[in-house]
Amino acid sequence: LCDPFASSLKAPHPLSSLGRFSHEAAAFDPATGVTYLTEDKNRGAIYRHVPDVQHSPFAKGDLQALKVKDIPEFDLSSGKTLGDHFDVEWVSIDDPSATTMPTRKQAKELGAARFSRGEGAFFAGGSAYLCSTNGGPTERGQVYRLDIGVSGQNDRLTLIAQADKEDALDRPDNITVAPWGDVFVAEDGKSPNGIFLIRPDGKAIQVARNAVNSGDSEVTGICFSPDGKWLFLNIQWEGLTVAVTGPFENLSTAI
Fold first, then answer.
1. What is the phi/psi pair of residue 8, to 5°?
2. For 118-140, what is each residue's pLDDT tens digit?
3. Domain extent listing, the chain
């Protein structure tokens, strides 16, 4: 991983235990050392890496794929409505380096759930937030929340947003959670791309749009300052980084 305080480049080293597949995003749980991983494939999977040693989270460990409990190869991308939730279990990938079989195929043979083009991931408040950029009835995106079970309970996956109409959220990609708990997602869809707030009732509300050139460029890297007063984002093609000042806390009720 990158050291933000390094004065020069360091030699790269592989994180082979985290698996070989079409990696997109990673969300890290600092309490357990577990990393949740998305796969940018139409019939991809959701993975997690459970380290052998909690304080060495990216060293040797067990790569696992998400499976909906008692339902092999469950398709999470179609026929779902807001609030649908599913208990999940995890199946171990025997060959994470994919030397004999692609990791995604191993996951499929183990009954892993199908997740349509996993994109952004973010961990906050005991949950991992996961974007499926072309899931849902219009194939224009879904957002799931994975609540991590405690005291022996199963992890649970809940659909918290999806694009149902042509004027709604379009292909959610990057995702972040504000310090007070609101969920924000950036689009990688048709022009103009923007940023949406996901309200607790699942309604997606646009709070910003890309006004640079045609607005085709993807908004990336959205994240808040620790005090929640600044929202940082990138405009991909133009190579811009933008800092936006709040207040943001009351957007979910003000719009």
1. -155, 165
2. 999 999 999 999 999 999 999 99
3. 22-164, 169-255
